[in-house]
Amino acid sequence: VSQHLVLAQPKARFRVHPQMDSCVVVIKLVPGFDDKAISAMIESSDVKAVVMETYGTGNTPSRKQRFIQCIREAVARGVVLVITSQCFKGRVVMDAYAVAAEMRDAGVVSAIDMTTEAVATKLSYLFGKGLPPDKVRATIGENLRGELTKYSKKSRL
Predict the structure, then answer these.
(1) What residues form DSSP beta bridges with 53?
(2) pTM to 2 decimal places
(3) Pairing relationship of beta strands 24-28 and 49-54 according to DSSP bridges
(4) Does 136 have pLDDT greater than 70?
């Protein structure tokens, strides 16, 4: 057992948080995806958050300007967009390539190394607590229950 990955015993009593918000959409990007179909999902007035499974370290196609514009508009409306990786190991690094940096500049948040399921659950939990989008966006990068790996500055992908 890798002891550095084992969490300490909880100090408080176990609590269930039944107030979850299900207005979270998960989109797995595949080569050749249709911008219009994804835009239609993101532009829905009920959507509070979108989790996008992207390529490698958080890359999306660089030539799909309508897609990037849709992302910018959604963020401006208060939709929280989080990028995860489709890779089994590794993490999202928004500074690795220009297209990921463009997504970061558009207001997209990195899931770091959280699984898609962890991100979707975390978003549902945070919105279920009544937090506003800016607070949810800021809290995504915080380790609440062991869903994020602690990396040192020497860590590699």
Answers:
(1) 28, 84
(2) 0.84
(3) parallel
(4) yes
What DSSP designation does 57 have? T
Q: Are 100 and 94 in contact (CB under 8 A)?
A: yes
Identity of residue 76: A
Q: How far apart are the first and last CA of the chain?
A: 21
Q: What does the pLDDT look like over 63-78, one tens digit per residue?
A: 677 888 888 999 999 9
Residues 72 and 106: their CA atoms lie apart, in Å, by 5
Query: CA–CA separation, 23 vs 51, rounded Å?
Result: 11
Q: Which residues contact 129 (CB under 8 A, 6 or more apart)?
A: 17, 19
Give dist(CA 95, CA 58) in Å, integer. 9
| 93 contacts 125 by C-beta, under 8 angstroms | no
The C-alpha atoms of residue 126 and residue 33 are separated, in whole angstroms, by: 29
CA gap 155, 153 in Å, rounded: 6
